[in-house]
Structure prediction request, 143 residues.
Amino acid sequence: MTIRPAAPTDVSQLADLTTQLGYPTRPEEAEARLRDLASRPEENAVLVAEEDGEAVGWIHVSALYSLEMDPCAQIQGLVVDASRRGGGIGAALVEAAAAWAAGHGFRTLRVRSNVIRERTHAFYERLGFARTKSQVVLVRPIG
Prediction:
């Protein structure tokens, strides 16, 4: 397995993986989003795990700046193909995100996870993350 930055040639696999994560995504949507994120490399990294020439997982890590806490890096999303889960790919992607964060001067890596993803919570706790709070996410459409 190789971990590398996501490339435009990965968009079909990125779309499929994002759909597996629970966010239905078409390749053209993945392409536009990846292009936007890639235009800000100091703020974002999308990394893929590649096996046999195929992206089998991805992680998006970004810089988080706010008034109420010190700057940190945050995992925005992580998914491994359903047929390859449990083999260490996710952990390797998290370590790659941690390396990106450290390389950009951040001392903390955060992640938010839906309350119903109990298996995911256990995964992150095994990797040294600690629960610090629960919250509700509210969304308001604009326009």
